[in-house]
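User: Here's a structure from my thesis project, written as structure tokens. My advisor, Dr. K., wants to see whether a designed sequence matches the one we expressed. Can you design one independently, without my sequence as a hint?
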């Protein structure tokens, strides 16, 4: 009891000493603003608001994907973790767009005088932003963006050192970054087994690069699983529970990055294997081209068109939105600037207010706080209109 009382008095005494010190500092402080704030300078270096990147090389990573190597024109590249992404700000099709791309190179590649990052972009069908990258971005092009973002990286306090990556399509990019970082001798003690699902051999992104890391580093193993290639002599079919069980070893952390259809399979497999939620992690889920893949999406909404009244400060616009596209895409199409980062409902950069009407919110990565849900806030990147709407969005 006496210890508690003494501790309490010490705390109160400590607080009043701090208050007195603060008061003295405020009284003696100069009225002229300090020209340099060292804490702000560190924060800016870690998380610059805007960066410019110059493309220094472009190479093929498969018949349908390209690797763009970028250097910072501002001198340095912020520290990041293998698995994080860069958010590009692009002006195209009459709109200002933001798009996330995982940094496929390793954090080690970004250090030193010749530091760089790479993004690997896939174009397997006509697509707005990948088309632009393939057709318009060349050596010398300057891109705007900022980094790093995302929480899909190895965290030693939470994750097992036995990482099992489950990848599909361009979802290989965070794992290639991790594989390289391990090969550099970073991420000490971590072993990475990549189960990489593709249809044909020609769909494999970064295939040669992965083979090279595997040769260089005994802690990285890559298993290609092909679902539509009869001539393939390795693992065939899809990434199933049995296949994962065969390769996962003791006490793994499963990390998934790929399309929603694949997510449904591997999430079920993880459940059947008895893995705890903590041991099954997934990257941000982009909205699929066909929202009917999202559980609960009202199928008859796809063909519908809805009016959205958009309030932005003193501006008021009325736009027509498609039922099969998230509200953020409708805003982009109408050339109304909307800030997005993850585009999967998690980060909250696109947080907007629903004043009237009904929306369907994708259950994958619904990162809204409980109070936001109750007060009618929503994330425009992952919400679909299912009636006419009135919304308020932040001014950029
Ligand atoms: C965290 C994260 C990391 C990612 N990393 C990678 C990666 O490493 N490699 C990779 O290849 N992909 C990656 N992606 C996917 C990538 O961000 C893009 O979504 C993808 O390249 C498709 O781009 P898109 O803009 O064409 O289509 P979407 O992003 O799906 O955009 C949706 C739609 O917007 C339409 N649209 C928007 N504005 C307009 C306009 N003004 N006029 C006409 N149409 C418009 C497009 O036609 C398109 O149908 C990642 C996604 C996330 C969330
Ligand atoms: S952009 Fe991240 S929640 Fe919408």
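Assistant: Designed independently from the structure alone:
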């Amino acid at each position: 009891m006496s210890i508690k009382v003494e501790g309490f008095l010490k705390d109160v005494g400590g607080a009043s000493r701090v208050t007195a010190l603060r008061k003295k500092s405020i009284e003696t402080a100069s009225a002229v603003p300090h020209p340099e704030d060292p804490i702000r300078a560190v924060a800016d270096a870690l998380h610059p608001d805007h960066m410019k990147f110059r493309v220094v090389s472009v190479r093929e990573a498969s018949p349908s994907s390209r690797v763009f190597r970028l250097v910072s024109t501002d001198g340095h590249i912020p520290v990041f973790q293998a698995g994080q992404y860069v958010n590009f700000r692009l002006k195209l099709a009459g709109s200002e767009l933001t798009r996330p791309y995982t940094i496929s190179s390793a954090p080690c590649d970004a250090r030193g005088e010749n530091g760089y990052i790479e993004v690997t972009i896939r174009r397997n069908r006509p697509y707005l932003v990948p088309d632009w990258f393939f057709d318009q971005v060349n050596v010398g092009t300057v891109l705007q963006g900022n980094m790093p973002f995302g929480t899909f990286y190895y965290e030693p306090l939470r994750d097992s050192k036995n990482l099992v990556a489950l990848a599909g399509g361009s979802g290989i990019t965070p794992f290639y970054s991790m594989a390289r970082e391990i090969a550099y001798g970073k991420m000490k003690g971590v072993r990475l087994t990549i189960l990489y699902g593709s249809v044909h051999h020609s769909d494999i992104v970064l295939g040669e690069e992965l083979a090279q890391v595997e040769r260089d580093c005994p802690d990285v193993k890559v298993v290609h699983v092909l679902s539509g290639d009869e001539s393939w002599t390795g693992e065939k079919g899809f990434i199933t529970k049995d296949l994962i069980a065969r390769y996962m070893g003791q006490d793994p952390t499963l990390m998934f990055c790929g399309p929603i259809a694949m997510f449904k399979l591997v999430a079920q497999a993880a459940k059947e294997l008895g893995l705890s939620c903590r041991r099954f992690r997934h990257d941000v889920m982009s909205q699929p081209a066909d929202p009917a893949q999202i559980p609960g999406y009202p199928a008859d909404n796809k063909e519908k068109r809805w009016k959205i009244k958009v309030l932005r400060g003193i501006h008021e616009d009325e736009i027509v939105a498609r039922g099969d596209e998230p509200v953020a895409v409708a805003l982009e199409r109408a050339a109304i600037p909307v800030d997005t980062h993850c585009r999967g409902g998690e980060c909250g950069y696109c947080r907007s207010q629903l004043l009237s009407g009904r929306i369907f919110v994708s259950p994958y990565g619904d990162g809204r706080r409980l109070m936001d849900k109750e007060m009618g806030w929503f994330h425009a990147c992952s919400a679909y209109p299912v009636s006419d709407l009135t919304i308020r969005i932040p001014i950029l």
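When you compare it with your expressed construct, this may help: The domain at 162-282 is CATH 3.40.50.80 (Rossmann fold).
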